[in-house]
C-alpha cells in the first residue's frame, strides 16, 4: 500500500541540519504501524511529509504504486481528499458545524450528494458508538466523544491510509483505551492501513508493528 | 465550490454573531446613506424635469435671458418669423408674499397662445368666475401643489408684493395639469406685467416650429435677432443646467456616504482578519483534508460577499426609508436650496438600488480579500499543532506607502474632471490608504519607545501589543478611518464657518440693511422709496444695491450682477487686485472666485456683460471671496450700471446712521413708513446670526454621516476585542490560574483597547489633517469655487479624541466580559 524509500527531511530546507534521513517503510493494506520516538524526533513531521503537508528534502513516497514525491499542491489536495484520513491529538472539530456535518465534511469535499453524505455520516457515527448524536453541537460533547467524531470523519470516505497523530494524547487512560479500540477496529474493518504516532506505550502495544524514529530512519522497536 | 461545503464558511458567520451583525450594519449604513442621497436627488431632478416639460409643453425652442427679462418687442419679430408656427410669451415673477415665508412662482401667460404651445399651463376657471376670468386683472390660478402650500381655494384672496406695495389677487381657479409636485401660479400676461411693474418686459418666449423648419438653422437665424444676454435654446437645456448646479453638492454627499461604506469595508477587514487568525487551525485542518488553496480563498471571499449582500439589501431598504423621511422633513435638495418650489415624490429605481447592493457586496469582498489571501497561504503543518497561538503579524508595506503617498500628491494637483473634483476624492482615498499602510510600522515604533511601566497590567498590555502589533493594527484601522473622516470634516467645517463669519463681517460694514424681498422676488426699492428712506430721521447715508442675473453664454449658469458703490470704504473681501478704480479706459468690475474658475478670468482681464440689451466691456480690477453665490457674481459701480441700463431700482439698501442714533429706532421708523410686511430690516449682527444658523443647518446631513462613520469605527473596536477576547480565552484562563482577578483581566483588555484606539486616533487625526487640506484646497475649491482659511478646532478635536479612547476602552472591556464568564479551568482545557 505505502512504500517509503530514503526519505529525508532537514530543519531549514535541504542545506539545514537533518531532522531525519533514510526513512524506509512498507505498509500493507489492513496493517497498523505505530511510530514512537523522543519528543522532537520528527514523528509528526514525518506524517506531514507523507501527507504532502510539508515538503521533503529527498526520497520517494509511493501509495498504491503511485509516486507521490514531486506532486504539486493541487494534486496532493486531490489525493488527501480521496485516499487519506486524519486523526489528530487536538480533535479539530469545527465548532460551527454540528456533529453530523463535521463527519460529512470529507464527503462534501468530494462533492458527494448532501443527503447521501448525511446518511453516511450518521451511519459512521453509529459505528463509533455515537448513534443519535448527529444533531448535537461539538460543545455538548466530551473529549472522548469528540475524538470518536474525529475517527468517524477520518473513515467516512473510505480512505486507503489513515494517519493518526497522538489520537489519545488528550484523553485519560480509560477513554484512551476505548477510543483506540474504536479506531483500530474500524480501520481494520475498512481494510485501510494506518500509521499511528504515539508516546503511549499502551497505544503502541495494540499496533501490528512498532517502529522508532531516529535521526537515521525508522528502526524496529520492541513493543513495550 | 460544492453546495454543502458552503456551510463550512457560512456557518462560521452565524457563530460569530456580534462581529457579523456589526459588520453587516456598518455596510448597511454606508449603502443606506449613499442610496438615500441618490434617490432624493433623482426624485428632485425628476420633478424638475416634469416642471420643465410642463412649462415648455410642445415648445421646440425657448428664447430666454436673464431674470430681468428683455423688451417684449422681440416677441413680434419672433412670432413673425416664417420658421415659427406658434409663439407663446411668458413673464415669470417670483412673487413675494407679505406675511409668508418664501415666494410664489407666477407665470404671466397669453391664454390664447397657451393651447398651442403649453397646454398643461391652461388655467381652469372656477364655475362662478366664468371662462373669461383668466383675462381679468386681479385674478390668479394656483396649481394644486401651490393651493395646498398656501391653504387657499377658489374665491380666497392672496396678497402679493410688488416693489414696496401690497396687492390683493383673487384665486379664481386652478392649473389642473400642472402636476402634484409643481408649486406655481398662472395669470394673464398683461395683468402680471402691470401688477409687478414689468410693463414691456418678457422673460421667455416658447416657440413651436413650423412644419419642415430646421431647428439648427432656425436657432442660427433667431440668434441674429436677439439682444445681448438673450439666447435661444432647446428646453431640455434647463434640465442639464439644474443637474449641473446641484451636482457638486450631490457628489460631495455621495462621497461622504461612500467613505462611511469604506469604513464598513475596514470593519469587515478587521473582523475577517481576526477570524482568519482565530481559525487558522481550522483552515490548516481543512487543507489537510484536501481543501485546495483556491477553494479556501473563495470560501472566505464568499463569507465577505454574503456579509456584503445582506448589508447591501438591508442598506437598500433603510436607504428608501431614509429618503422618504428626508423628502418629507428636509426637501428634495437636502436643505441646500437648489430646488425651491417643488414637492418631489420618491420613485423606486431598480438599477440604482441594485448598484448600491452591489457596492455593499464590493465592500464585503474588498474587506475579505487580504484576510482570505493570508488564510490561503497559511503553512498548514505548523498550524495543525495543538497550542499554536494565533498572533497577528503584519509587515510594513513600504512600496505601497510610497505609491499611495505619491498618488495623493499627484491626484490633489489634478484639475477638475467635468466640474467634479475627482482628483481630490482620489487624493483622500490615497491619504487614507497611506495612513493604514503606515499603521503597523507606527505601532511598532510606539511600542519600542523607551520607558518601562511598572504596573503589571500596563506591562502585559504593552508586551502583547509589542509581540502582536497586528492585533493593535486591526483594532485601530477602523478607528483611524472614521477619525480621519470625522476630524477632516470638523476641520473643514470649522475653516468654512470661520471664513464665512469673517466674510460676513467684511461684507456688512453698514449699520442697518433693508431689503424689499429676497433678491429673486418681486419686491424692490424704487427711487421714491430710496428717497423716503434717506429722509428718515437718524439716517446719514443710503447705499442702494441692485442685484440682477445675467447670462454670459448659452447653456451657462447665470451670474449675479451686483451694482453698488465700491469705493468710499464699502469694501469687498478681495483675494486679488484692488478696490482702486484708477483711470482705466474701461469701467472696473470685481469678480468672485467662481467667475475666475468657471470663466478663466484673472485681474486685468476683460469681461463683457449684457446690460440694456447690449454687450459692455469691463476690466477685472479684483477678485473677491463670495460664499453666497456658487455660480459666480460680478460687482460693478452702481453709477456705471445706472448710466448704461437706465434701471434705477434697488433690491437692498445699506444704511449708515448718525453717530449716537439707535438703529432699533430707525428700524421702527422704516416699518412705520412702509408697513410691517413690506421691508425686511436687519442689523449686520442679525444677518450674521441668521446666516450662521442656515450654515449650521446645511451641515446637519454631513454631521449625521460623520456620526455614523465614528459609530462604525467604535463598532470595529468592540468586534475586534470581542473576537480577541474569545480567541485568548486560554491565555486569560492561564492568567486566572496565576492569580489575576476577572476585574484585572477586564482592565487589561480596556488598556489594550485604549492603546490600540489611541494609535488609531493619532493616525486618524494626522490623516484627517491631510484630508482636510484636500477638502479645503481641492474639493471645495473645485466643487463650489470658494476658498477659505484653514482653522483647526484644537479643543474640540482633543475632547473628541479623549472621548473616543475612553469609549473604546469601555467597548473593549464590555466585549471581553463574555470571554471572562467562562471558568478558568474550562478555558485552559479548551481545544478550539
TrEMBL record, chain A:
It holds the Pfam family ABC_tran. Residues 2-223 form the ABC transporter domain. GO terms for cellular component: plasma membrane. SUPFAM superfamilies: P-loop containing nucleoside triphosphate hydrolases. GO terms for molecular function: ATP binding; ATP hydrolysis activity; transmembrane transporter activity. Gene3D superfamilies: P-loop containing nucleotide triphosphate hydrolases (3.40.50.300). Keywords: ATP-binding, Cell membrane, Membrane, Nucleotide-binding, Transport. The keyword Nucleotide-binding applies. This is ABC transporter ATP-binding protein. It comes from Pseudothauera lacus. The lineage of its organism: Bacteria, Pseudomonadati, Pseudomonadota, Betaproteobacteria, Rhodocyclales.
TrEMBL record, chain B:
Residues 20-225, 473-672 form the MacB-like periplasmic core domain. The lineage of its organism: Bacteria, Pseudomonadati, Pseudomonadota, Betaproteobacteria, Rhodocyclales. It is a multi-pass membrane protein. Signal peptide: none annotated. Coiled coil: none annotated. GO terms for biological process: lipoprotein localization to outer membrane. GO terms for cellular component: plasma membrane protein complex. Residues 255-378, 707-823 form the ABC3 transporter permease C-terminal domain. The chain crosses the membrane at residues 253-276, 297-330, 350-372, 400-418, 424-447, 468-492, 703-727, 748-774, 794-812. Keywords: Cell membrane, Membrane, Transmembrane, Transmembrane helix. Belongs to the ABC-4 integral membrane protein family. LolC/E subfamily. Its main location: membrane. This is ABC transporter permease. It holds the Pfam family MacB_PCD. The keyword Cell membrane applies. The keyword Ligase does not apply. It is found in: Cell membrane. InterPro entries: ABC3_permease_C (IPR003838), Lipoprotein-release_system (IPR051447), MacB_PCD (IPR025857).
